[in-house]
Please model this.
Amino acid sequence: MHVTNLELHDFRSYPHAEVALAPGPTAFIGANGQGKTNLVEAIDYVAGLESHRVAVDTPLIRAGTSQAVIRLDVQRHERSARLEVEIAGGRSNRGRINGSAVPRLRDMIGVVRTVMFSPEDLALVKGDPSDRRRFIDALLTLRTPRLGGVRADYDRVLRQRNTLLKSARGRSDKVDLSTLDIWNDKLAALGGELIGQRLATLNELAPHLVESYRQVAADADTGRQQVTATYKSSTDLADAGDAEAIRDRLLVALEERRRDELDRGVTLVGPHRDDIDLAIGDLPARGYASHGESWSLALGLRLASFHVLREEGDDPVLVLDDVFAELDGRRRERLAKLAADVEQVLVTAAVSADVPDVLAGDRFNVAAGEVTRA
Model:
């Protein structure tokens, strides 16, 4: 799979931009703030319908305009498709495939697949649990797009349940709680499916993570080359093998925590409270990993994601956004060699010298919103 053309209208800093792309490596070279990351962000956005840089869409629309448009031409084996996303401030976003409107925007997820590694990925190791939840949820949704609907439905039920709990906080004897059991059933059913898919995805990811980290951190001490990723749930999942069993565990936990939830006015059980524990050797990565180890582990997670997706039929587009300057020489060369056989690799860098020779290919200069072939 590869992108053959990218066209932007009022996306980020670009009134208009169009770039023809080829398989193999392509590098966008430009100083910070010139717009090179905006190009690869747009491609990644169409893949998963979310930005790796911001949580809401408003900053994606160029200042002073009302909507942004991203168009991608994608080649997959012998078939091609044109994807178009309209990002509308204050209105629902819209999507088209080959000129035909999609009934739901999330129906576009998975038509093009990307794996992006960027400086923000350090949060996968050092950041909050929400960063790791977002990582695993984005991957499972890219693999199984219908789970985007499960995630959206879960978030909706969670908001409504929290609204009920907040209204009852400190005055549960004066609030009708008859609907709480209904929300419990919905939350547990959706949460059971989401956790089940997270566990299955993490199980497939784990061996690739071990191997990817070993390749990137090959010069580390033997005891520091072993990494693990373990799901940490807000409820006991021991021997809960499928979504139905997890649902039952969640219902029990919700009942056990009901008094605490009414006192605090918030839902304390469910996938929104879960985490992925990352460890290097015998120690948790968060708080104990060095800066280099943290980078290697974050990179290992992204490379593992790439291999999980590759096993399903073809290469996703690999995006390396401003990462080579952050890596020492040995890690830089290892990453470049690992990326060299990927069908399409998009690289951004401040200076051309940051891009290893093994990724020599098409190069574009990016300056003041202008993209020109080097």
About this structure: The chain has ten helices and 15 strands. The first strand starts at residue 2 and ends at 11.
